[in-house]
Amino acid sequence: MTLAKSILEHSIPLLDCGEKIRFLDPAFGTGVFYSALLNATGSDSILSAQGFEVDPCYGEAAKELWKETLLNLKILDFTKLSPPKRQSDCFNLIICNPPYVRHHHIESEEKINLRYLSSKACESKISGLAGLYCHFLCLSHPWMQRGGVAAWLIPSEFMDVNYGKAIKQYLLQKVTLIQIHRFDYEDTKFDDALVSSAVVWIRNSLPPPNHKVLFTFGESMHSPNMSRLVNLPCLKDEPKWTRFPSLGIREKAENHCLSDLFEIKRGIATGDNKFFILTKEKTEHYSLPDEFLRPILPSPRYILANEIQADQEGLPILEHQLFLLDCRIPEEVIRAKYPSLWKYLKSGKGTTSERYLCRTRKTWYFQEKRLPAPIICTYLGRKKGGNERAFRFILNSSKAVAPNVYLLLYPRDTLKYYLSRDPNQIRRIWEILNALEPTSILEEGRVYGGGLHKIEPKELGNVNATRIVNAIPSYAKISKETQHSLFE
Ligand SMILES: C[S@@+](CC[C@H](N)C(=O)[O-])C[C@H]1O[C@@H](n2cnc3c(N)ncnc32)[C@H](O)[C@@H]1O
């Protein structure tokens, strides 16, 4: 059964029995949903059918294809249209797979306009980071008949990320969120392999008392592998909706989280790794002064073990030894005192110096200040199955700093204090981190199509750290307030 057919077969029964259909697809393409509608109901049940398509190639082809039917297809940009003024001109069945254009590919003026119109249409403040699919969803709201139903085939990203908050607020407050079906990410529904998809069903009416939303997951929406009903108030409090249906409602215990113990930062973004990160041979070839070279870790694929040991000088014992050119003195001083470094920097002028990060710095070659972190974490990875982990915590005993393919965990003052008394505790903590239930970390991050997981510093900070706190008895005994007062 095709996806469009399944979506239509799932949506039509949500309408009142015998209700004539007023169909709208605002991103019509060639009309797979319209085709599925005709197959599912026959034209007798359809009162009207409206489509919008911005691309004349698709639009003309679709017009030709459906010319014998009652379809009214307009080759127009849906986002620029005014919704119908009268209820009787609105639609009771909107089915759409909107264009998925990321926010940074939307022209800034257009984005301002879209944000204004979408926020007004759904009465929720839409973020500048929202993709075009979010605007389609919001802008369609005034096109829906009261009590009408819509099904949106969209990326599931909104369920977990910050820009999704306003969309979720709309789904919870302005309409009745009926169901969200998420497809198995192994089975991505979009050509773009980085997108995992969901179908969201809504009804244009306020949610009835005690309403529960059905979350389903699996290849088929008719017989999902998993399903769970979740109360609206729980959804309001839960920032990560992709935990449903496989996981339940989060316990609200007074737990510790990783950000209580660690300050979590992203590794160094050099602006041009090829220029600023060099092998030992290259630093010698260019005679770069040692005082401006800091050891830096290579990417995780070169770090096979989860522990980095150090030699007597603190250099990481690794096959791939790399150095960051980290010089924070002005050009005039470099020119006068360090001719070889001056020559090297000159070779990056006009190329590296013009790259985005470099040209927006005070001085193009100044690097971010970061100290070596005792624990680092890979933040992008695939979980290939079983108990395999998408993210690895690596114990770093060297004085190497880390690039931005890692998150860096710096102990906060209280933890630092305990570690100064018993340096072995850091190993203990690292062991616990790597033994945490993988889902307890994954559920804080986000997942893209093809099973690519990603976790941001703030999200890693939300991971429950109660096991760590309980494993350090002297730490656990002291309440949070007392911990702070130790250093005041
Ligand atoms: C993901 S495709 C959906 C395809 C469609 N379901 C079909 O049957 O072919 C999105 C469609 O929206 C169209 N589109 C993009 N921006 C649009 C806009 N602003 N207004 C109307 N259509 C738009 C694209 O040209 C594309 O055909």
From TrEMBL:
Domain of life: Bacteria
Keyword match S-adenosyl-L-methionine: yes
GO biological process per UniProt: DNA modification; methylation
Catalytic activity of the protein: a 2'-deoxyadenosine in DNA + S-adenosyl-L-methionine = an N(6)-methyl-2'-deoxyadenosine in DNA + S-adenosyl-L-homocysteine + H(+)
Pfam families: Eco57I (PF07669), M_Eco57I_C (PF22837)
Residue ranges constituting the Type II methyltransferase M.TaqI-like domain according to the UniProt record: 74-185
Enzyme Commission code: 2.1.1.72
InterPro entries: DNA_methylase_N6_adenine_CS (IPR002052), M_Eco57I_C (IPR054520), MethylTrfase_TaqI-like_dom (IPR011639), N4_N6_ade-DNA_methylase (IPR050953), SAM-dependent_MTases_sf (IPR029063)
Cited SUPFAM superfamilies: S-adenosyl-L-methionine-dependent methyltransferases
Signal peptide, first to last residue: none
Primary enzyme class: transferase
Residues of the Type II methyltransferase M.Eco57I C-terminal domain: 250-472
Sample GO molecular function, one term: nucleic acid binding
Family: Belongs to the N(4)/N(6)-methyltransferase family.
UniProt name for this protein: site-specific DNA-methyltransferase (adenine-specific)
Lineage: Bacteria, Bacillati, Cyanobacteriota, Cyanophyceae, Nodosilineales
